[in-house]
Write a structure and sequence with these properties.
Distance between the termini: 21 Å
Structural class: alpha/beta
Strand content: 5-15%
Strand order of the largest sheet: 2-1-3-4-5-6
Radius of gyration: 22 Å
Length: 371
């Protein structure tokens, strides 16, 4: 049993963890902190954060009753992160400072994260947020048959975020004219601050595979947004059913973050093979959790490369190879991938109650604070 506490700053209705628990009919209780009895069962105060803000004081605006119970060790403050880009060491340092400033023992907080690179730090519990999110959304509506026939486009590469690595990858697709053979979209070019001072970005010094990168990017800027309607009013089924491949560009590329992203699991659910431009060893992490990749059918060696420029170039070269092939070639290749695609869908559709209960037990057991 787990008990959720909430107050005016914490909307319990949108709580991902609670909604996952409801889906599995796991026992739970909820209380407004103003009405909570003294003898609560494993109480937790869950704060969802999309991106960890190192300048924000996450304890300052706590309800006085929540903060007192936290100080007394009567509740656990659980941070539930859905971020793909948080740096574990930065989060760890900031939370340590906040705990010291407010006199709160670090053992009274828990940080759930979808970042598998955080497993090496005791302060974090890795939680498969994106796998569960997609699972509960689509588990009753996945394709049961494999349609291996001619499709409208070679690939899908739809992007809802604008970051420098995403921009370079998509610019290179566009530069070669391949965007015409895919469901391809790119957002406005001026939505992030990192482009305000490009001279401060180490990636701008890349020269091994891209010459005069700032000029190339500025030319690409003149043509964005590209096909933005694809990601505004989209029917995901078309992207999966009518293209052979999905080129996934993850939000994180440079931070210490290995993310098994929402896009990866949507491809798995829909039997669509993909490449993933992300942190080194993302595919290796994917395999650790029972899934199969297509190495041996396509060249996935890019995933092992530590050098960011080399990895991006290698991933693009794989995409270049795939985008250059005729429909018959893709139909033949994907037929070879059929067994792995169905294996992954079956793995994904396995009941998640045990996975969810394990994380709840971890939080609850760590909530047995010795007072």
């Amino acid at each position: 049993m787990i008990t959720f506490l909430y107050d005016q700053f914490n909307n319990i209705c949108s709580n991902y963890l609670l909604n996952f628990i409801k889906n599995e009919n796991i026992d739970y209780l909820t209380y407004d902190i103003k009405e909570a009895p003294a003898d609560l069962i494993n109480p937790v105060y869950v704060r969802e954060i999309e991106n960890f803000d190192p300048a924000y004081d996450y304890f300052q605006l706590l309800d006085a009753r929540v903060k007192q119970k936290l100080l007394d060790g009567e509740i656990k403050y659980v941070f539930y992160s859905t971020s793909e880009t948080d740096e574990p060491m930065e989060v760890k340092r900031r939370l340590s400072r906040l705990c010291n400033n407010h006199g709160i023992p670090k053992s009274h907080i828990e940080y759930l994260t979808p970042n598998y690179a955080s497993e090496k730090y005791d302060e974090f519990t890795v939680f498969p947020h994106f796998e569960l999110k997609v699972y509960y959304e689509v588990r009753n509506n996945v394709p049961e048959q494999f349609e291996n026939n001619r499709r409208q486009r070679i690939f899908t590469c739809n992007n809802m975020h604008n970051s420098i690595h995403t921009k370079i990858f998509c610019m290179t697709i566009w530069q070669h004219g391949f965007h015409k053979s895919g469901f391809f979209s790119y957002p406005m070019s001026n939505i992030t601050d990192e482009f305000d001072h490009p001279e401060n970005i180490p990636i701008m010094q890349w020269h091994e595979y891209w010459e005069n990168l700032p000029n190339l990017l500025s030319v690409f800027d003149l043509h964005t947004p590209i096909n933005e309607q694809l990601i505004v009013n989209r029917d995901d089924r078309v992207f999966y059913q009518q293209s052979y491949w999905n080129f996934i560009v993850q939000k994180n590329y440079f931070n210490d973050a290995i993310i098994l992203s929402e896009e990866m699991f949507r491809c798995v659910a829909n039997l669509q093979p993909f490449t993933v431009l992300g942190k080194q060893n993302t595919l290796r992490e994917f395999r650790k959790h029972g899934y199969q990749t297509l190495d041996g059918i396509i060249n996935e060696s890019y995933d092992m490369l530590e050098n960011d420029e080399q990895r991006l170039n290698k991933c693009f070269l794989l995409g270049y190879h795939l985008m250059s092939q005729p429909d018959e070639w893709h139909i033949n290749l994907i037929s070879k991938a059929k067994n792995a695609l169905f294996h992954n869908q079956r793995e994904f559709l396995k009941p998640k109650k045990g996975m969810l209960q394990h994380v709840i037990d971890t939080v609850v057991s760590s909530n047995q604070i010795q007072k």
